[in-house]
Amino acid sequence: MFKHKAVVIVALFAAIIAVVFALLFHWMHFTNNINLYLSLVVLFALTFGVIVYLLNRNIYSRLDTLYKLMYASGDKKLSDKNVNIGRVEKEVIKWSQEKEPIIRQLKAQEKFRREFIGDVAHELKTPIFNIQGYIFTLIDGGLYDETINKKYLRKAQKNINRMIHMVQDLDLITKIESGTLVLTKKRFLLSLVIEEAIDEVEMRALEKDIKIRYQKPKEDIWVIAEKNHILRVLINLISNSLKYGKKGGKTEISIKHKKASNKYWIKVEDNGIGIKKEDMPRIFERFYRVDKSRSRNEGGSGLGLAIVKHILEAHNETISVKSTFGEGTSFQFSLEKALK
Protein backbone atom coordinates (compact mmCIF):
# COMPACT_ATOMS: atom_id res chain seq x y z
CA MET A 1 0.00 0.00 0.00
CA PHE A 2 2.76 2.42 0.98
CA LYS A 3 5.53 2.85 -1.59
CA HIS A 4 8.00 4.89 0.51
CA LYS A 5 9.15 3.24 3.72
CA ALA A 6 10.86 6.36 5.08
CA VAL A 7 7.68 8.42 4.76
CA VAL A 8 5.70 5.76 6.64
CA ILE A 9 8.27 5.69 9.46
CA VAL A 10 8.26 9.49 9.78
CA ALA A 11 4.45 9.59 9.80
CA LEU A 12 4.28 6.85 12.44
CA PHE A 13 6.92 8.56 14.58
CA ALA A 14 5.09 11.90 14.35
CA ALA A 15 1.79 10.25 15.30
CA ILE A 16 3.34 8.65 18.40
CA ILE A 17 4.92 11.95 19.45
CA ALA A 18 1.61 13.74 18.93
CA VAL A 19 -0.09 11.28 21.28
CA VAL A 20 2.68 11.70 23.88
CA PHE A 21 2.40 15.50 23.69
CA ALA A 22 -1.36 15.29 24.06
CA LEU A 23 -1.02 13.18 27.19
CA LEU A 24 1.65 15.49 28.64
CA PHE A 25 -0.45 18.58 28.00
CA HIS A 26 -3.39 16.86 29.66
CA TRP A 27 -1.22 16.02 32.66
CA MET A 28 0.21 19.55 32.82
CA HIS A 29 -3.31 20.88 33.08
CA PHE A 30 -3.53 19.30 36.54
CA THR A 31 0.02 20.06 37.68
CA ASN A 32 2.26 23.10 37.76
CA ASN A 33 5.74 21.56 37.53
CA ILE A 34 8.39 23.76 35.82
CA ASN A 35 10.61 20.75 35.15
CA LEU A 36 7.80 19.15 33.25
CA TYR A 37 7.53 22.25 31.05
CA LEU A 38 11.27 22.15 30.32
CA SER A 39 11.13 18.45 29.55
CA LEU A 40 8.29 19.11 27.14
CA VAL A 41 10.30 21.79 25.29
CA VAL A 42 13.36 19.52 25.05
CA LEU A 43 11.22 16.64 23.83
CA PHE A 44 9.63 18.89 21.21
CA ALA A 45 13.05 20.07 19.98
CA LEU A 46 14.38 16.51 19.77
CA THR A 47 11.27 15.34 17.95
CA PHE A 48 11.47 18.21 15.50
CA GLY A 49 15.16 17.50 14.86
CA VAL A 50 14.57 13.78 14.27
CA ILE A 51 11.71 14.42 11.84
CA VAL A 52 13.74 17.03 9.92
CA TYR A 53 16.72 14.65 9.78
CA LEU A 54 14.64 11.75 8.48
CA LEU A 55 12.89 13.89 5.87
CA ASN A 56 16.16 15.52 4.82
CA ARG A 57 17.85 12.13 4.53
CA ASN A 58 14.97 10.76 2.48
CA ILE A 59 14.89 13.78 0.15
CA TYR A 60 18.67 13.87 -0.19
CA SER A 61 18.87 10.17 -1.06
CA ARG A 62 16.30 10.66 -3.79
CA LEU A 63 18.06 13.74 -5.16
CA ASP A 64 21.35 11.86 -5.08
CA THR A 65 19.78 8.99 -7.04
CA LEU A 66 18.39 11.52 -9.50
CA TYR A 67 21.84 13.05 -9.96
CA LYS A 68 23.36 9.65 -10.56
CA LEU A 69 20.77 8.96 -13.24
CA MET A 70 21.29 12.37 -14.83
CA TYR A 71 25.07 12.21 -14.76
CA ALA A 72 25.79 8.54 -15.25
CA SER A 73 29.47 9.27 -15.90
CA GLY A 74 29.88 10.11 -12.23
CA ASP A 75 31.66 13.40 -12.94
CA LYS A 76 29.07 15.37 -11.04
CA LYS A 77 28.07 14.60 -7.46
CA LEU A 78 25.52 16.09 -5.11
CA SER A 79 26.89 17.76 -2.01
CA ASP A 80 24.88 17.03 1.12
CA LYS A 81 26.13 20.26 2.66
CA ASN A 82 24.28 22.46 0.23
CA VAL A 83 21.15 20.86 -1.19
CA ASN A 84 19.53 23.62 -3.23
CA ILE A 85 16.11 22.41 -4.39
CA GLY A 86 15.77 25.33 -6.80
CA ARG A 87 19.11 24.54 -8.42
CA VAL A 88 18.23 20.86 -8.67
CA GLU A 89 14.89 21.72 -10.26
CA LYS A 90 16.61 23.88 -12.90
CA GLU A 91 19.17 21.18 -13.63
CA VAL A 92 16.45 18.54 -13.98
CA ILE A 93 14.54 20.76 -16.43
CA LYS A 94 17.73 21.47 -18.38
CA TRP A 95 18.65 17.79 -18.41
CA SER A 96 15.18 16.75 -19.63
CA GLN A 97 15.33 19.35 -22.41
CA GLU A 98 18.74 18.08 -23.50
CA LYS A 99 17.54 14.48 -23.52
CA GLU A 100 14.28 15.21 -25.35
CA PRO A 101 15.83 15.02 -28.88
CA ILE A 102 17.56 11.75 -27.94
CA ILE A 103 14.29 10.31 -26.64
CA ARG A 104 12.50 11.36 -29.84
CA GLN A 105 15.27 9.77 -31.89
CA LEU A 106 15.07 6.53 -29.90
CA LYS A 107 11.29 6.44 -30.34
CA ALA A 108 11.70 7.01 -34.09
CA GLN A 109 14.31 4.24 -34.27
CA GLU A 110 12.04 1.87 -32.38
CA LYS A 111 9.16 2.70 -34.73
CA PHE A 112 11.44 2.17 -37.73
CA ARG A 113 12.63 -1.16 -36.29
CA ARG A 114 9.06 -2.41 -35.87
CA GLU A 115 8.06 -1.27 -39.34
CA PHE A 116 11.22 -2.73 -40.85
CA ILE A 117 10.67 -6.16 -39.28
CA GLY A 118 7.04 -6.08 -40.40
CA ASP A 119 8.02 -5.10 -43.94
CA VAL A 120 10.67 -7.84 -44.20
CA ALA A 121 8.20 -10.43 -42.92
CA HIS A 122 5.56 -9.22 -45.38
CA GLU A 123 7.96 -9.20 -48.34
CA LEU A 124 9.27 -12.69 -47.58
CA LYS A 125 5.82 -14.11 -46.89
CA THR A 126 4.59 -13.80 -50.50
CA PRO A 127 7.43 -15.69 -52.24
CA ILE A 128 7.60 -18.29 -49.46
CA PHE A 129 3.87 -19.06 -49.72
CA ASN A 130 4.16 -19.15 -53.52
CA ILE A 131 7.03 -21.63 -53.36
CA GLN A 132 5.11 -23.70 -50.83
CA GLY A 133 2.09 -23.85 -53.16
CA TYR A 134 4.20 -24.90 -56.15
CA ILE A 135 5.96 -27.63 -54.15
CA PHE A 136 2.68 -29.01 -52.74
CA THR A 137 1.28 -29.16 -56.27
CA LEU A 138 4.34 -31.05 -57.50
CA ILE A 139 4.22 -33.44 -54.53
CA ASP A 140 0.54 -34.15 -55.17
CA GLY A 141 1.37 -35.54 -58.60
CA GLY A 142 2.34 -32.52 -60.63
CA LEU A 143 5.97 -33.60 -60.64
CA TYR A 144 5.12 -36.36 -63.14
CA ASP A 145 2.98 -34.12 -65.33
CA GLU A 146 5.26 -32.66 -68.00
CA THR A 147 2.76 -29.92 -68.78
CA ILE A 148 3.15 -28.30 -65.36
CA ASN A 149 6.31 -29.59 -63.62
CA LYS A 150 8.80 -27.34 -65.43
CA LYS A 151 6.37 -24.42 -65.32
CA TYR A 152 5.97 -24.65 -61.55
CA LEU A 153 9.68 -25.22 -60.98
CA ARG A 154 10.49 -22.07 -62.97
CA LYS A 155 7.95 -20.12 -60.91
CA ALA A 156 9.48 -21.45 -57.71
CA GLN A 157 12.93 -20.49 -58.97
CA LYS A 158 11.69 -16.98 -59.76
CA ASN A 159 10.43 -16.54 -56.20
CA ILE A 160 13.67 -17.94 -54.77
CA ASN A 161 15.64 -15.42 -56.85
CA ARG A 162 13.38 -12.67 -55.53
CA MET A 163 14.24 -13.61 -51.94
CA ILE A 164 17.95 -13.88 -52.77
CA HIS A 165 17.95 -10.39 -54.29
CA MET A 166 16.13 -9.02 -51.26
CA VAL A 167 18.67 -10.51 -48.85
CA GLN A 168 21.54 -9.21 -50.99
CA ASP A 169 19.98 -5.74 -51.08
CA LEU A 170 19.50 -5.71 -47.31
CA ASP A 171 23.07 -6.89 -46.83
CA LEU A 172 24.34 -4.06 -49.03
CA ILE A 173 22.33 -1.43 -47.14
CA THR A 174 23.54 -2.81 -43.80
CA LYS A 175 27.17 -2.65 -44.91
CA ILE A 176 26.77 0.94 -46.11
CA GLU A 177 25.00 2.06 -42.91
CA SER A 178 27.54 0.35 -40.67
CA GLY A 179 30.48 1.78 -42.62
CA THR A 180 31.91 -1.66 -43.42
CA LEU A 181 31.41 -1.35 -47.18
CA VAL A 182 34.78 -0.77 -48.85
CA LEU A 183 34.54 1.55 -51.85
CA THR A 184 37.23 1.16 -54.51
CA LYS A 185 36.97 4.43 -56.39
CA LYS A 186 38.51 4.43 -59.84
CA ARG A 187 38.41 6.59 -62.93
CA PHE A 188 36.03 5.28 -65.60
CA LEU A 189 34.12 6.39 -68.69
CA LEU A 190 30.57 7.20 -67.61
CA SER A 191 28.95 6.61 -71.02
CA LEU A 192 30.06 2.97 -71.04
CA VAL A 193 28.42 2.34 -67.66
CA ILE A 194 25.19 4.06 -68.76
CA GLU A 195 25.07 1.93 -71.92
CA GLU A 196 25.70 -1.20 -69.84
CA ALA A 197 22.79 -0.28 -67.55
CA ILE A 198 20.51 0.25 -70.57
CA ASP A 199 21.47 -3.16 -71.96
CA GLU A 200 20.62 -4.72 -68.59
CA VAL A 201 17.01 -3.43 -68.63
CA GLU A 202 16.41 -3.56 -72.38
CA MET A 203 14.09 -6.59 -72.27
CA ARG A 204 11.89 -5.00 -69.61
CA ALA A 205 11.64 -1.86 -71.72
CA LEU A 206 10.55 -3.91 -74.76
CA GLU A 207 7.94 -5.76 -72.71
CA LYS A 208 6.40 -2.46 -71.59
CA ASP A 209 6.88 -0.75 -74.96
CA ILE A 210 8.93 2.03 -73.39
CA LYS A 211 11.75 3.67 -75.32
CA ILE A 212 15.02 4.45 -73.54
CA ARG A 213 16.86 7.43 -74.96
CA TYR A 214 20.38 8.34 -73.97
CA GLN A 215 21.65 11.78 -74.95
CA LYS A 216 25.29 10.82 -75.25
CA PRO A 217 27.68 13.79 -74.98
CA LYS A 218 30.11 14.43 -77.83
CA GLU A 219 33.11 14.46 -75.50
CA ASP A 220 34.16 11.66 -73.19
CA ILE A 221 32.87 11.99 -69.62
CA TRP A 222 35.26 10.60 -67.01
CA VAL A 223 34.20 10.26 -63.38
CA ILE A 224 35.74 8.78 -60.25
CA ALA A 225 33.63 6.37 -58.17
CA GLU A 226 32.99 2.69 -57.46
CA LYS A 227 32.01 1.56 -60.96
CA ASN A 228 29.85 -1.44 -60.03
CA HIS A 229 27.88 0.53 -57.45
CA ILE A 230 27.20 3.38 -59.89
CA LEU A 231 26.05 0.77 -62.40
CA ARG A 232 23.65 -0.46 -59.70
CA VAL A 233 22.38 3.10 -59.17
CA LEU A 234 21.68 3.54 -62.88
CA ILE A 235 19.99 0.14 -63.24
CA ASN A 236 17.76 0.84 -60.23
CA LEU A 237 16.74 4.30 -61.45
CA ILE A 238 16.02 3.15 -65.01
CA SER A 239 14.16 0.06 -63.73
CA ASN A 240 12.09 2.32 -61.47
CA SER A 241 11.17 4.51 -64.44
CA LEU A 242 10.09 1.42 -66.40
CA LYS A 243 8.10 0.03 -63.47
CA TYR A 244 6.06 3.21 -63.13
CA GLY A 245 6.13 4.12 -66.82
CA LYS A 246 3.23 4.17 -69.24
CA LYS A 247 2.93 1.87 -72.21
CA GLY A 248 4.39 3.60 -75.24
CA GLY A 249 6.22 6.04 -72.95
CA LYS A 250 9.86 7.02 -72.72
CA THR A 251 12.79 7.22 -70.34
CA GLU A 252 15.51 9.75 -71.08
CA ILE A 253 19.06 9.80 -69.67
CA SER A 254 21.26 12.86 -69.91
CA ILE A 255 24.49 14.28 -68.44
CA LYS A 256 25.11 17.91 -67.54
CA HIS A 257 28.18 19.74 -66.29
CA LYS A 258 28.04 23.11 -64.61
CA LYS A 259 30.92 25.49 -65.18
CA ALA A 260 33.38 25.96 -62.32
CA SER A 261 32.15 22.69 -60.81
CA ASN A 262 33.90 19.38 -60.31
CA LYS A 263 30.61 17.50 -60.57
CA TYR A 264 28.63 15.89 -63.37
CA TRP A 265 24.87 15.65 -63.01
CA ILE A 266 23.14 12.56 -64.39
CA LYS A 267 19.40 12.78 -64.98
CA VAL A 268 16.95 9.88 -65.46
CA GLU A 269 13.58 11.26 -66.55
CA ASP A 270 10.32 9.57 -67.57
CA ASN A 271 6.77 10.46 -68.54
CA GLY A 272 5.18 7.82 -66.33
CA ILE A 273 2.53 7.99 -63.64
CA GLY A 274 4.50 10.39 -61.45
CA ILE A 275 4.54 10.63 -57.66
CA LYS A 276 1.97 12.23 -55.38
CA LYS A 277 3.17 15.05 -53.12
CA GLU A 278 2.37 13.11 -49.96
CA ASP A 279 4.56 10.23 -51.15
CA MET A 280 7.62 12.34 -52.05
CA PRO A 281 9.22 12.46 -48.56
CA ARG A 282 9.17 8.65 -48.27
CA ILE A 283 10.25 7.39 -51.69
CA PHE A 284 13.80 6.59 -50.49
CA GLU A 285 12.57 4.54 -47.52
CA ARG A 286 13.03 0.78 -47.48
CA PHE A 287 10.07 -1.17 -48.87
CA TYR A 288 8.08 1.99 -49.56
CA ARG A 289 6.12 1.75 -52.80
CA VAL A 290 4.27 4.58 -54.51
CA ASP A 291 1.89 2.20 -56.31
CA LYS A 292 1.79 -0.93 -54.17
CA SER A 293 -0.41 -3.01 -56.47
CA ARG A 294 1.73 -2.31 -59.52
CA SER A 295 5.00 -2.91 -57.63
CA ARG A 296 3.95 -6.26 -56.19
CA ASN A 297 2.66 -7.50 -59.53
CA GLU A 298 5.97 -6.67 -61.19
CA GLY A 299 8.11 -8.06 -58.37
CA GLY A 300 11.17 -6.37 -56.95
CA SER A 301 12.38 -6.05 -53.38
CA GLY A 302 11.08 -2.55 -52.70
CA LEU A 303 14.65 -1.52 -51.86
CA GLY A 304 15.75 -0.04 -55.19
CA LEU A 305 15.61 3.66 -54.35
CA ALA A 306 16.84 3.08 -50.79
CA ILE A 307 19.96 1.42 -52.24
CA VAL A 308 20.42 4.30 -54.70
CA LYS A 309 20.35 6.85 -51.88
CA HIS A 310 22.70 4.84 -49.64
CA ILE A 311 25.25 4.23 -52.41
CA LEU A 312 25.36 7.89 -53.39
CA GLU A 313 25.63 9.02 -49.77
CA ALA A 314 28.53 6.58 -49.31
CA HIS A 315 30.20 8.39 -52.23
CA ASN A 316 29.41 11.77 -50.61
CA GLU A 317 27.16 12.54 -53.56
CA THR A 318 23.59 13.85 -53.66
CA ILE A 319 20.36 12.91 -55.39
CA SER A 320 17.22 14.96 -55.96
CA VAL A 321 13.80 14.18 -57.38
CA LYS A 322 11.11 16.20 -59.10
CA SER A 323 7.74 14.79 -60.03
CA THR A 324 4.30 15.79 -61.21
CA PHE A 325 1.59 13.25 -60.56
CA GLY A 326 0.21 11.92 -63.83
CA GLU A 327 3.02 13.44 -65.91
CA GLY A 328 6.32 11.88 -64.88
CA THR A 329 9.35 11.87 -62.61
CA SER A 330 12.95 13.08 -62.85
CA PHE A 331 15.86 11.83 -60.71
CA GLN A 332 19.17 13.68 -60.80
CA PHE A 333 22.38 12.69 -59.00
CA SER A 334 25.95 13.94 -58.92
CA LEU A 335 29.29 12.25 -59.58
CA GLU A 336 32.78 13.59 -59.09
CA LYS A 337 34.60 14.65 -62.23
CA ALA A 338 37.84 12.73 -62.74
CA LEU A 339 41.01 14.69 -63.36
CA LYS A 340 42.60 14.15 -66.76
From TrEMBL:
Residue ranges constituting the Histidine kinase domain according to the UniProt record: 119-339
UniProt cross-references to InterPro entries, sorted A to Z: BphY/WalK/GraS-like (IPR050351), HATPase_C_sf (IPR036890), HATPase_dom (IPR003594), His_kinase_dom (IPR005467), HisK_dim/P_dom (IPR003661), HisK_dim/P_sf (IPR036097), Sig_transdc_His_kin-like_C (IPR004358)
SMART domains: HATPase_c, HisKA
Presence of the UniProt keyword Membrane in the record: yes
CDD domains attached to this UniProt entry: HATPase, HisKA
SUPFAM superfamilies, per database record: ATPase domain of HSP90 chaperone/DNA topoisomerase II/histidine kinase (SSF55874), Homodimeric domain of signal transducing histidine kinase (SSF47384)
EC number: 2.7.13.3
An annotated GO cellular component: plasma membrane
Transmembrane segments: 7-28, 34-55
Entries under Gene3D superfamilies matching the protein: 1.10.287.130, Histidine kinase-like ATPase, C-terminal domain
UniProt key word rRNA processing: no
Keywords from the UniProt entry: Kinase, Membrane, Phosphoprotein, Transferase, Transmembrane, Transmembrane helix, Two-component regulatory system
GO biological process, one term: cellular response to phosphate starvation
GO MF annotation list: phosphoprotein phosphatase activity; phosphorelay sensor kinase activity
Signal peptide region: none
Enzyme class: transferase
Pfam families reported for this sequence: HATPase_c (PF02518), HisKA (PF00512)
Recorded catalytic activity of this chain's protein: ATP + protein L-histidine = ADP + protein N-phospho-L-histidine
Name recorded for this polypeptide: histidine kinase
